[in-house]
Write a structure and sequence with these properties.
The protein is mainly α and 437 residues long. The chain contains 25 helices and seven strands. The strands form two sheets. The chain has a four-stranded parallel β-sheet with strand order 2-1-3-4. Helix 17 (236-253) crosses helix 18 (264-278). The longest helix is centred in the middle third of the chain and has 18 residues, at 153-170.
Length: 437
């Protein structure tokens, strides 16, 4: 049970977040339920708790109680309720079973941003100590250890040493070294711990691309995980703290561009959200690795052979990269350069179905069954393409898509966009041989 101090803190959070957009969204919903059909979770079992407007109704009832005349005078008549411990217990399953993908917002006739409503609700639940245990744990570790997966500085440096040794052999270059804490580099590259520990191939692919494109970059031994679990948890203090540490490290190293690895929410947080949260202008640019690779290909810094990627390729738009950040064409331009057999899913781009792994869902084992079942729309999309390779630009999506393919018995390999680029790289010595011929 929440303590009175926690309930007061939660109420203060609600009051502080009642911006004009949020109030507008709470007051203008017509309950048409069009949003329900656009939600991948609702398609599991048509349970009302998965309806986006139902999630919003939780917060709307409390808002009415404290900010409308009818809610203050006749709460029973308009369904207004106080912010109580019992009321919050009724929110939890609905609010945390949401990936905040914003597909419902795209389809809402009024354009209500249900992701904003859900995150506000999570902030309240977190303040009352009602966030899922593992989500809380990962957020705390991100703040204290520097990584939600508890990757320490030594773990990180050991990984880089392993990558360096492997690439010296693969690139046939005994002098190859991975730069760490190099000041005034063009790029500071910050990976995600999920890639470092679960998808090391992707980091190796990115390092090969850096090598071939002759990129002036550096890693940081201080900030080595770009993941920001405060975004999922609704903990504003943690969210700002994590983002600020990345920004301060970029400033300390004097780099030109902070390069975010294939991590959708981390890119959105640093590129679009943090300047507003922190009221701060950057002294550097923020780019996603996919944007940078697309630039390098178009500049002729990377030579590619699309025949090296065998099989039919389709692309999954990560929600935070696509709908929430507008990166649609760059990954497609890349894939069309590294594959001769690319086919689109339908629908795609801003209307693409969420894979089901976002919003921290991968860190909430209590909802695992629904998380996997909610991939049914994505599984249908993949099957319809007959693709043997599903490419995406987000490690979180990679993890979820792999599990969804297994869950629905689909034989398709999951690859990052940078993996496909690395597969298609033409080494400099091969270029010379071709020119000589």
């Amino acid at each position: 049970m929440s303590k009175p101090a926690e309930i007061k803190k939660a109420f203060d959070i609600l009051e502080s977040k009642l911006s004009m957009p949020l109030v507008t969204y709470l007051e203008t919903c017509t309950h048409c339920a069009i949003c329900a059909d656009s939600c991948h979770l609702y398609h599991i079992d048509q349970d009302p708790i998965h309806m986006p407007f139902y999630k919003a109704e939780n917060l709307r009832r409390v808002y009415k109680r404290h900010h409308t005349v009818m809610g203050k005078l006749f709460p029973w008549l308009v369904g207004a309720r106080n912010l109580t411990d019992q009321e919050m217990d009724g929110w939890k399953d609905s609010i945390y079973q949401c990936t905040m993908c914003r597909r419902c917002s795209i389809n809402c006739p009024i354009g209500i941003d249900n992701a904003l409503i859900v995150r506000t609700s999570r902030s309240i639940l977190s303040a009352m100590g009602k966030a899922p245990e593992m989500l809380e744990e990962h957020t705390e570790k991100a703040c204290t250890v520097g990584s939600p997966l508890s990757v320490t500085k030594q773990d990180f440096l050991d990984r880089l040493e392993w990558f360096e040794e492997e690439l010296q052999d693969e690139l046939d270059d005994d002098d190859y070294e991975i730069p760490i804490d190099q000041k005034n580099a063009d790029y500071l590259f910050i990976p995600a711990s999920l890639e470092m520990m679960k998808f090391p191939k992707t980091i190796m692919s990115i390092l090969k691309i850096f090598y071939m494109a002759k990129v002036n970059y550096t890693f940081s031994s201080v900030r080595y995980d770009v993941t920001n679990y405060g975004v999922f948890n609704g903990d504003d203090a943690a969210t700002k703290s994590i983002a600020m540490k990345d920004i301060e490290e970029a400033e300390r190293l004097g780099i030109k561009t902070l390069l975010v690895s294939e991590c959708g929410h981390a890119y959105r947080a640093l590129r679009w959200e943090a300047p507003n949260w922190l009221q701060k202008e950057y002294s550097f640019e923020v780019q996603d690795i996919v944007e940078a690779v697309d630039d390098w290909i178009k500049e002729g810094r990377i030579k590619l052979d699309p025949t090296k990627n065998k099989g039919r390729v389709t692309y999954h738009d990560p929600c935070n990269m696509g709908r929430n950040s507008g990166i649609f064409e760059e990954p497609r331009d890349i894939i069309n350069k590294v594959s001769d057999n690319f086919v689109e899913m339908t629908p795609n781009r801003e209307n693409n179905w969420c894979c089901g792994g976002g919003g921290g869902m991968l860190s909430m084992p209590e909802y695992e069954k629904n998380r996997l079942d909610s991939g049914t729309k994505k599984a249908d999309q993949v099957k319809a393409t007959d693709a043997t390779i599903v490419a995406t630009a987000c490690a979180n999506c990679q993890m979820q898509l792999g599990q969804v393919m297994d869950h629905f018995g689909i034989e398709a390999k999951i690859e990052s966009v940078t993996d496909l680029v690395a597969n298609a790289l033409v080494p400099a010595k091969d270029e010379i041989e071709v020119e000589d011929e």
